[in-house]
């Protein structure tokens, strides 16, 4: 867990140590996220509505864009969290998607990690209908790399 946690609603991600090596290459953490408006993709196995708790059997993918601070509720965004907007009306990350990746295409055309699903971007709005709030992963890149080095 991130040892710098200062509030219950921030820094909500963890690293997991696997008990054996895997052959898959990890996704690269972006040096920096694109500006608001940058096309992104989110992935997850979460529900598609906020009224049922049936999780997807196959990985879901949604085209999104990095939103502006004003597209989420006031006070929700800061240098560690940002707003994400779906390019499909009434569809967004929902229950079970927390911690899932938000990706952008790097300059070389490869996908790179910029965010982790955190929660809704506005209070009282059903998850598929509103903006999403994403943790800014590049802001924690030094902590992530240090934790990996310390534990391998």
TrEMBL record:
<dbReference type="InterPro" id="IPR043504">
    <property type="entry name" value="Peptidase_S1_PA_chymotrypsin"/>
</dbReference>
<dbReference type="GO" id="GO:0006508">
    <property type="term" value="P:proteolysis"/>
</dbReference>
<dbReference type="GO" id="GO:0005615">
    <property type="term" value="C:extracellular space"/>
</dbReference>
<dbReference type="InterPro" id="IPR009003">
    <property type="entry name" value="Peptidase_S1_PA"/>
</dbReference>
<dbReference type="GO" id="GO:0004252">
    <property type="term" value="F:serine-type endopeptidase activity"/>
</dbReference>
<keyword id="KW-0378">Hydrolase</keyword>
<dbReference type="InterPro" id="IPR001254">
    <property type="entry name" value="Trypsin_dom"/>
</dbReference>
<protein>
    <submittedName>
        <fullName>Trypsin</fullName>
        <ecNumber>3.4.21.4</ecNumber>
    </submittedName>
</protein>
<keyword id="KW-0645">Protease</keyword>
<dbReference type="InterPro" id="IPR050127">
    <property type="entry name" value="Serine_Proteases_S1"/>
</dbReference>
<dbReference type="Pfam" id="PF00089">
    <property type="entry name" value="Trypsin"/>
</dbReference>
């Amino acid at each position: 867990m991130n040892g710098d946690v200062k509030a219950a609603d921030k820094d909500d991600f963890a690293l997991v140590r696997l008990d054996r090596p895997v052959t898959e290459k990890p996704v690269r953490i972006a040096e920096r996220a694109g500006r608001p408006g940058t096309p992104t993709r989110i992935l997850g196995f979460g529900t598609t509505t906020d009224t049922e708790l049936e999780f997807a059997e196959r990985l879901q993918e949604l085209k999104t864009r990095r939103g502006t601070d004003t597209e989420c509720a006031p006070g929700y965004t800061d240098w560690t969290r940002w707003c994400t907007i779906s390019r499909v009306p009434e569809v967004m990350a929902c229950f079970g998607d927390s911690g899932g990746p938000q990706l952008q295409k790097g300059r070389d055309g490869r996908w790179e990690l910029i965010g982790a699903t955190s929660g809704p971007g506005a209070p009282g709005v059903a998850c598929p209908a509103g903006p999403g709030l994403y943790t800014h992963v590049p802001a924690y890149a030094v902590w992530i790399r240090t934790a990996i080095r310390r534990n391998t």
